[in-house]
Each structure stands twice: as C-alpha cells, then as structure tokens.
TrEMBL record:
It comes from Magnetospirillum aberrantis SpK. The gene is tig. One of its GO terms (biological process) is protein unfolding. This is Trigger factor. Consists of 3 domains; the N-terminus binds the ribosome, the middle domain has PPIase activity, while the C-terminus has intrinsic chaperone activity on its own. It catalyses: [protein]-peptidylproline (omega=180) = [protein]-peptidylproline (omega=0). Residues 426-462 are annotated as: Disordered. SUPFAM superfamilies: FKBP-like (SSF54534), Triger factor/SurA peptide-binding domain-like (SSF109998), Trigger factor ribosome-binding domain (SSF102735). Its EC number is 5.2.1.8. Residues 161-246 form the PPIase FKBP-type domain. Belongs to the FKBP-type PPIase family. Tig subfamily. One of its GO terms (cellular component) is cytoplasm. Keywords: Cell cycle, Cell division, Chaperone, Cytoplasm, Isomerase, Rotamase. Pfam families: FKBP_C (PF00254), Trigger_C (PF05698), Trigger_N (PF05697). Residues 426-448 have a biased composition (Basic and acidic residues).
Amino acid sequence: MQVTETNADGLKREFKVVVPAAQLEARTESRLAEIAREVKLPGFRPGKVPLKIVRQKYGASIMGEVLEAAVNEGTGSAIQDKGLKPAMQPKVEITSYAEGKDLEFTVALEVLPEITAMDFATLSLEREKAAAPEGEINDTLARIAERHEGSETVERAAAAGDVVVIDFVGKKDGEAFAGGTAEGYSLKLGSNTFIPGFEDQLVGKSAGDAVVVEVTFPEGYGNEDLAGKPATFDVTVHEVRATKAAEMDDELAKKVGMDSLDALKQAIKDELTRELDGIARTKLKRVLLDQLAANHDFQVPEGMVEQEFEAIWKQIEQDKEAGRLDPADADKDEETLKTEYRTLAERRVRLGLLLADVGQKNEVTVTQDDLNKALIEEARRFPGQEHLVFQYYKNNQEALNSLRAPIFEDKVIDFILELAKVTDKEVSVEDLRKDPDEAGEEKAEEAKPKKKATKKKAESAE
C-alpha cells in the first residue's frame, strides 16, 4: 500500500492511496479459503466445496468486503502515520478500480488546529451581584396566598375577581353544541378561563339572574366547527362568591409543604438567590467568552464552520417562517444575514475548540456524579414521568452526550474563572436582569456618535 500526501494547505490535508492488485487478490483468496472451510452447499461435504464454486457464489460480496477493508486501512494509515487529528469524518473518493487492477483513492480531511491558550491569569472580569429583594419575596408569598384563596357567598352583584357559580348551555345557530354545557360551574371573573367576552358579560349579575351571553369564537379555536363563528350561551347565575387570599401564616406554609412561614420565606429567598446567581453567572460567562474570542484568532476547520452555520441558518429559516425572526434581522437582506451568521458560526467553533483543548490539556472530566445530577435535574422537568426520562437517557447514548457537553463546558469555564481575576460589583436586581444588548442600546442613545450594540446571538457562543 502506497500513501502519498498530495496537499497540505492550512488545516486541509489530502492523500492519494494506492493498493496493489496483488494485495487485493491475496486478501480475496484468503477470504475465499475461509468461507470454503465453513460453507455448506448441497452435494458437497462441509469444507470440500471447490474454490471455483465458492468464488462464483460469493466472489462479488467478498470483493466488496476486501475493498472496504482496504479503503479503511488506507485511510487510517494516512491519518495515523502523520499523527493527524481529524476535525471531521474524512472524505474518501475512489478514483480508479477495475478487477485485476490497482485500487486508487483519495482521502481529504481537515485537521484540528494547534491551539496556544492565553494566560488566563491576565483576564480581568467583573461579576454583577444582587441580593434577593424583600419586595419580591413578599410578592411571591402574596401569589402563593392568592393560589390558596378561599371564598364566601355574598348578596350583591358580581365584580371582577369574584367567583360565580353558573349553569350554561352554548348554542350555535340556535342549536346546542357538544361540550358547551355545564351545571354548577365555578368561574372566576377576570381569570380569562373562557373565550374573550364571556366573563365580562357576567360582571354586575346577581344570584338568580338569567342572561344570554353573546360571543365569537377565536379564529384559531381548536374546534373547527366553532372557530371564528358567533355563538350564544344561556347562563343562569346561582351564586356570587367573594374571594379572599389565604392568610400569610404558618398554616399557609404547611399547605405548601413547609414547617412554618419563616421556613417558606427562606425557601423563596433561596430560590430567588439561585435565580439571581444564575443570571450573574450567565452574564459573567458571556463577558468571559467575549474576552476569549478577542484573545484567540487561530484558524478553524471550514467544514466545522459550515456545519455550524447550516444548523444556525436552518433555525433562522424556521424562525422566519413562524414569524419569530429577531426584529434586528427582519430588515436585512439574506446575503447580509448569512455573512453575519457565518461569522457567528466561526466564533462558536473557535470557542468550542478552545474550551475543548483547555479541558483536555488540564484533565477536566465529567464524572458519573456530574451526569447523575444533570439527569435528576432533567427528570424534575417531567413530574410523574421521571422513570421514563431515566430510561430514555440510559438507552440513548447520543442524548446522554447532549447532557455531558454542557457540563464539560461549564467545568472548563469554572477552571478558567479560578485563574482569572474576578471582582464582584453590587447592582440592583433590575440592572442584573437587564439584557446587555438593551443596556448597550440605551448607552448608544446617549452617546455621539451612536454606537451599535453587539448582536445578542453573537454575544453568546453556546
């Protein structure tokens, strides 16, 4: 087997591989002999089938096996002998082959770049911090109390926020329709539980009142027979009940599984603190990635960039079709958008390669404990179906890898942050939650000349 390097341009490599006909024939004969010893054909004793008959029956499939093995071996030899690290699957093209002739093929690939990371100790980063405000803790308590509200019968007309106990019969063109009838239904006015306009027409009604409610079903209503159509509901009001939020006391806390009101407040504070810390970390990571991108400019494999761009552009096209396209992109022509998002794809690939290299060189690993924690968090998103989630990831290696990748990235980010100089800056909760692009736009309005804010999608590499 002869392997000749024909191109070494940047990260691109190309080889010509020639496998002599004699070598292919020898492998074919060896494989035929193996089969002849094992094959069973009518009229012949096991192991006594003539080689000529074996060749006639199995020759084509054996030649396919031999050619595949030769291509794999030649490709492996081209890569391993040069000590190359392919960025993606090599492209193999057979350029010449005929029975009894040499096999010739080319192997084209891109290799991973050599990366020299900056000294992370020279990085200077600012982390925004905000304490959980008492106001939000109290607001959350109020919402919990409202969800556990009680009600009592009142002798007056119904107002927004009251509960009315009603019977109703829905009709279209004067005929009752399926699913439009109920008795003793408790409806909170202002809850928007029913279609638009229904609840408003019950405000001001009292127990014993009968009213015909006139509505039009929304265009996108699930029942096509009713969508966009006018209808009436014959409604009888049996009772008006005023609602009252539950008292904020230990009893309320016990209703939600806490021992006391103080324990509930602490749980709310802890959850809010975790949320704010998460936002702070996300913004810090964004700043870190910006600095890493600014300090590393190594060449990246074009194939990886193109693959990343295609994934981004597919999402852009889906967003455009669904009317979800970023307003900042809506007025741009397709060529401009493609240029911008190809730049984003290159940034993502470069940062991804950098983080992978830093992690590998510094022996950052994802442990089974790390995966277990991620699995538990994922399962919590599907209450009552946790066992199905665990089973899915247990039987799906690709899905498991999708959990492993962000864990690895976060651990590498943590490694870099440990080396960098990070100072904390106390900010308001409002400023912490403010999107950096929005803040950039506000500053741009104040500054002359105006400076355009960096694209949100380009700010975050992952």
